[in-house]
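Hi support team,

I submitted a single chain yesterday and got back a structure, but I'm not sure I'm reading the token output correctly. Could someone confirm the output below corresponds to the sequence I sent? I've pasted both exactly as they appear in my results page.

Thanks,
R.
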Amino acid sequence: MQYGRARVRVPTDTVEATTSVTFPKEFENGMIPTIICTYNGYGNASDPWSDTPNPSWAGATFGAVGVTNSGFTARCRRFDGAMLRGVYYFSWVAIGAA
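Hi R., thanks for writing in. Yes, this is the structure output for that exact sequence:
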């Protein structure tokens, strides 16, 4: 199992935003881990990195796509279908044989 925190910065309005996540350690060759992403909060696009969860806004979700043994692409959308803009923080857990 591996885990981490990341963010996606969205400087202009968009319906969906993505960011690449690289695992700290590659999983076994051919192993595609199961990924769980959890939305942690929102900030302004100009905000510096923060390692503290921001509970200011809770209307977005993250999903993992393009999963390989070395990383994945995190995809973010708002629940209400409105435009994204700002910085969206999330946590992830990858479960598989490392």
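A quick pointer for reading it: The mean pLDDT is 89. Let us know if anything else looks off.

Best,
Support desk
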